[in-house]
Amino acid sequence: MAKQSVAEQFVDTLVRAGVKRLYGVVGDSLNPVVDAIRRNPAIDWIHVRHEETAAFAAGAEAQITGTLAACAGSCGPGNLHLINGLYDAHRSMAPVLALASQIPSSEIGLGYFQETHPDRLFVECSHYCELISSAEQMPRVLQSAIQHAIGRGGVGVVSLPGDVAGHDAPEKTKEQAMITSRPTVRPGDEEVEKLIEMIDRAERVTLFCGAGTAGAHAEVMEFAEKVKSPVGHALRGKEWIQYDNPYDVGMSGLLGYGAAYEATNECDLLILLGTDFPYTPFLPDDVQIVQVDVRPEHLGRRSKLDLAVWGDARETLRCLIPRVKTKTNRKFLDKMLKKHAEALEGVVKAYTRKVEKHTPIHPEYVASVLDEVADDDAVFTVDTGMCNVWAARYITPNGRRRIIGSFRHGSMANALPQAIGAQFVDRGRQVVSMSGDGGFSMLMGDFLTLVQYNLPVKVVLFNNSALGMVELEMLVAGLPSFGTTNHNPDFAAVARAAGAYGVRVEKPKQLEGALKDAFKHKGPALVDVVTDPNALSIPPKISADMVTGFALSASKIVLDGGVGKMVQMARSNLRNVPRP
């Protein structure tokens, strides 16, 4: 019986950890691992055109499935390309294993061709990053990387020289037990008791929810009803908490809308639930604040806390719901619901005025129509910049849809690569990449990956021939726009030349039909929509100290238009408000 190589052992370990695909670009130092994948029917090699795409795709797959995904880059320049996508996965708490292959082990430290030091380079964007310098290390180091990625939520990196990968694996290597899922974390009794006391004492409680409320929708609604709390959310909490929510007061932050800002600043107890919300100017400094988070290092790093609670959002609420006193006074909740509806009514008018005749097409109109015609369980991947605005304000969550973007890392060019990873998980599920022309063109080469694998991703391209968010930054800073204009081709023609479905839309009346036709197409498709870059308006709450830094400029000037179906939801919630 032939001996197993280190590369074969590496691949077998990934398979045992539940990895079904390894995204990457082949290269000499990776050859032993890629060949081992070729011979293993339980895992596929996904050949992308750029390693950054590989990392983004793996991160998206991990976010969709909640399980480990993997990517790889060859030595030197190859694995360096992984770093941006790995930063994004790590900050999104997506469990990703990255293989950064290395030059021959005997040449490390001698300035060899393509030499870099991955075990140093990836430290900041991973929980674990180590070099395997001998065959004997491999099983334990790889297992440790996997368990760091799964257990802590984020990236584990293994650097493996190509020659070591080709060595024989040690005989009688024991197959170690392996974790493949994370436990729930119940808060301590002392913190639960203190929190119950604070809630019972407070007259006006507000919940502000983030991505940590995934899976806790029912508990959030039950708790909000019991304490008569408005429920606001951060951008990453939108998909988990906004739907079927009679206590919804919208979103706070850079792209905020509705009454979330008022609800968080006019309460006397604010509970930050499963959110590491980074924009401190939007948080109050004169009310009691409690933060509940599964990661203790997140507690108190954004605002001064009156109580820090280490625990899962769902488990914490399960501890509270049976024990907190039922509040009967709805005055604060009803006031916030009315403010929310009024705020949405105020901005929706700009969207409804003759947009069906406006050219270039209002981009918010595109997002609104997209929301209507997309599937109820579609996955939307969203480019950073203005597409974040469209997703935040127009894509309606329902508990089945997913919205994925580079919401923490803020990278350009993320939507198309993330759509690749999302689509490989389920070819039968509709995946829509909401791409800006700047982001799409940055990694446009991987549109060819869609064609090569016949992935039925639908790219909806918001094409304003500019880096729109950057122009807004310049405008806020009092600078003329410079270096932000894109001279674009006919992207639909490019898609057709690549072998995909492509259509260009320049008139609003063409839009709905073009989207429906593209969605009916069995393979990859691109809808190139020429949009208006000039419609601007001011969001609900702004102060001078909110307009510093990158995206805070988006709080100063955000795109004109309404908020899609959210105004209907707010009107519906007003039925619960007693008439005077």
From TrEMBL:
Ranges of residues in domain Thiamine pyrophosphate enzyme N-terminal TPP-binding = 5-116
**A Pfam family for this UniProt protein?**
TPP_enzyme_M
Q: Name one GO molecular function term.
A: thiamine pyrophosphate binding
Domain named Thiamine pyrophosphate enzyme central is located at 192-320
Q: Which domain of life is it from?
A: Bacteria
Q: Does the keyword Nucleus apply?
A: no
This chain belongs to which protein, by name?
Answer: Pyruvate oxidase
Q: Which organism is it from?
A: Streptomyces tsukubensis
Q: What is the lineage of its organism?
A: Bacteria, Bacillati, Actinomycetota, Actinomycetes, Kitasatosporales
